[in-house]
């Protein structure tokens, strides 16, 4: 489908640029530049996303029900109605975009997951480490569904572990910061994890090469801040599991 054909369908169906952005996941400014002619050679994946938007009119109409709602009023049903190619988190009724993780981000999460998994297997433990993408209905209500980078589920697995994800709070959560998620991970999700009953929350900042550790079992407001130059003990394992960041440190140098 050519850009001219898309322009005609946009007029025929009465789609606004903001509506197209909301439903396709393409930034509003990108769409405006394409349709105004400022961008003469759009990326292939962008064109495919726009073409899909115009071809799948039924899905568009169904999705528009949630696109016209306001922040703070979305529900888990709206979350499940999102197109499969859109990655978002739902927190207190508001959607937050999630960009695709970088290779470095994936390597960091994978390395920490590997060390947790190896320890659990060696010790014959029953805890279950899991990596994103993973739906976590944190508060067990219909207004929040998050996707932590990595979690460890120990207690009440029969009650919390579902075919689609986790229903309730994991025991341990890891988030690896990126420029677009820093504020959300350090403030909004911090309070959500604490209130929901997460025992331990790690925030890894690969840019500052620091690790912030919140252990909510302790009556401490501020995090413990660690560098990546030495192994770090995991509180839910009483310090017996040490995460070695030597590989990560070399990737960040």
How many strands, which pairing sense, and closed or not: the largest β-sheet? 6 strands, mixed
Query: What is the strand tally?
Result: 12
Shape assignment:
elongated
Which blocks of ≥5 consecutive residues have pLDDT under 50? none
Kindly state the mean pLDDT as a whole number? 89
Ends: how far apart? 45 Å
Order of strands across the biggest sheet? Answer: 3-5-7-8-9-10
Estimated share of beta-strand residues: 15-25%
Please provide the ordered H/E string of secondary-structure elements.
Answer: HHHHHHEEHEEEHEEHEEEEEH
Number of helices: 10
Radius of gyration: 21 Å
Structural class: alpha+beta
Level of helix content?
Answer: 40-55%
Write the layout of secondary structure elements.
Elements: H1 3-13, H2 17-24, H3 28-36, H4 44-55, H5 57-67, H6 76-80, E1 88-91, E2 94-97, H7 103-123, E3 128-131, E4 135-137, E5 150-153, H8 157-160, E6 165-167, E7 172-176, H9 182-196, E8 200-205, E9 210-215, E10 224-227, E11 232-233, E12 242-243, H10 246-252
Parallel strand pairs: 4-6, 7-8
Antiparallel strand pairs: 1-2, 3-5, 5-7, 8-9, 9-10, 11-12
TL;DR?
The strands form four sheets. The chain has a six-stranded mixed beta sheet, sandwiched between helices. With 253 residues, the chain is an alpha+beta fold. The chain is elongated and about 65 Å long.
Key traits:
10 helices, alpha+beta, elongated, two-stranded antiparallel sheet, six-stranded mixed beta sheet
């Amino acid at each position: 489908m050519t850009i001219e054909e898309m322009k005609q369908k946009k007029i025929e169906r009465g789609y606004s640029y903001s509506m197209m952005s909301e439903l396709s996941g393409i930034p509003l400014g990108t769409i405006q530049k394409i349709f105004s002619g400022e961008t003469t050679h759009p990326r292939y994946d962008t064109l495919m996303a726009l073409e899909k938007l115009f071809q799948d009119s039924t899905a568009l109409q169904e999705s528009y029900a949630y696109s016209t709602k306001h922040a703070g009023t979305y529900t888990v049903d709206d979350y499940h109605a999102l197109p499969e190619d859109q990655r978002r988190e739902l927190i207190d009724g508001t959607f937050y975009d999630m960009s695709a993780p970088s290779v470095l981000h994936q390597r960091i999460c994978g390395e920490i997951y590997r060390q947790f998994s190896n320890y659990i297997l060696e010790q014959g433990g029953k805890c279950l480490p899991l990596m994103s993408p993973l739906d976590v209905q944190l508060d067990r209500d219909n207004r929040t569904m998050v996707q932590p980078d990595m979690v460890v589920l120990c207690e009440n697995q029969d009650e919390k572990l579902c075919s689609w994800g986790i229903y309730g709070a994991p025991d341990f959560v890891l988030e690896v910061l990126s420029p677009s998620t820093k504020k959300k991970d350090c403030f909004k999700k911090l309070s959500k994890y604490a209130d929901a009953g997460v025992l331990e929350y790690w925030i890894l900042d690969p840019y500052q090469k620091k690790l912030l550790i919140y252990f909510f079992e302790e009556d401490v407001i501020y995090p413990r801040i660690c560098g990546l130059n030495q192994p770090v003990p995991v509180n839910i394992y009483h310090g017996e599991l040490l995460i070695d960041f030597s590989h990560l440190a070399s990737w960040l140098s």
